[in-house]
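Why do we bother with holo predictions? Because pocket geometry can differ from the apo form. Keep that in mind while you read this record for adenosine-5'-triphosphate.
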Amino acid sequence: MSAVVLDSVSKVYPGGQRAVADLSLEIADGEFFVLLGPSGCGKSTTLRMVAGLEEITTGGLWLDGRLANELTPRERNVAMVFQNGALYPHRTVRDNIGFPLEIARADQAEASARVVEMARALGIDPTLDRLPGTLSGGQRQRVAMGRAIIREPAVFLMDEPLSNLDAALRTDLRVEIGGLVRGLGVTTLYVTHDQVEALTLADRIAVLRDGFLEDVGTPPQIYESPATAFVAGFLGAPQINLLAAVPEAVPGEGVVLHLGTQRLVIPWTDPRAEHVAGHHAATVILGIRSDALRPTGDPHLGPVLSGGIRTLEYHGHEWLAHIDAGVTVVDAAEVGRRVRPEPAAAGRSSGGMAGRALSLLRGGRREAAGPEPAPHVGSHRRAELLARLHSRDGYGQGSHVHLAVDLERVLIFGRDGHRVDPVLR
Ligand SMILES: Nc1ncnc2c1ncn2[C@@H]1O[C@H](COP(=O)(O)OP(=O)(O)OP(=O)(O)O)[C@@H](O)[C@H]1O
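The structure, written out:
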């Protein structure tokens, strides 16, 4: 077992592509640590640097208190499981699982007993004499896991091990991996872009974006109290409502947040009020999860947002209301982005509501015509607010709805996407 420490680690690929930027993480001995983020954010590169498959450009990697930058993959005593299992196709399941023991020249009788034991633990003992090509995706991943576990490494490195499996199998194997790895107590670094995997498996999660660390914390910390609007937008389904608002500090009342013609008030007794007051007359971003909005009959009782239902979607256990509320939606993917989008992703329309939000977030500054791509601020969503309704309750398309806002759960971010109030970790 081993602690893993990354100290200001950066990776620039030949050709100048910077994949990881100044990343510092401390992963405790025995911790199940998940690297989460969208495609291209540098998760796999980070994992491969820890494995020794990719050179570290600058910074230090420490494994069990030892500087490991120059160690070979074998010297690091880590085991990696890839997305596709990566098994030897001409070797049986038995030989694939036993391969690390064969390399280590372990006692043959003892090795074969351990292989059988491992296969039993993973529920693949009936397949021991089959070739990988005859296995299902889930069975192949179990074999890959078995091969990684059997050598009792100091660190497990898993790169999206479930992403090629169908949803049901993914859930099953997710539970199994969680149980198995926890049982072994081996430090695990697990890469995924799937928030459910991250939230369910991790002791702690680090969220990466464009190679930078956005946030790190336990699943409840990251979900309930994200450090940035990007993280708030990345976690949770349906996606959090991110709305542009202009704060106005009003003595005796609180900080009034103007959202178009609507308003919410953070009373002075709320510790966030003084922080958001510092953004007086600037633009802030409110993060309101759909379950922090509850239909109410009385628009004058407590904080309320109102709007017209554009669409009602039936989701079985609930209805999802898409509501036009005359508010400006902010695109989580672009707020506070430090890296310019690739040319293909740039140049999307910034007109209409998106354009208004963009100009709000830039303090009304007009975008100069020039080579800099315009960050996309706006929404792909069909309406401005998403709210959950437990029943249809007489609502339909075009109905006017008042939504009581659970103010305690509203997150407030500055225009740079960072929380205005201190983020406790
Ligand atoms: N060998 C390479 N040479 C040059 N650039 C690379 C190389 N490998 C990755 N990159 C770039 O580095 C960035 C990070 O890639 P990486 O594979 O680490 O991201 P990721 O978060 O794991 O993405 P995904 O979820 O799609 O696998 C991307 O912009 C990618 O194009």
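Residues 13, 15, 17, 19, 37, 39-45, 193 surround adenosine-5'-triphosphate (CB under 6 Å).
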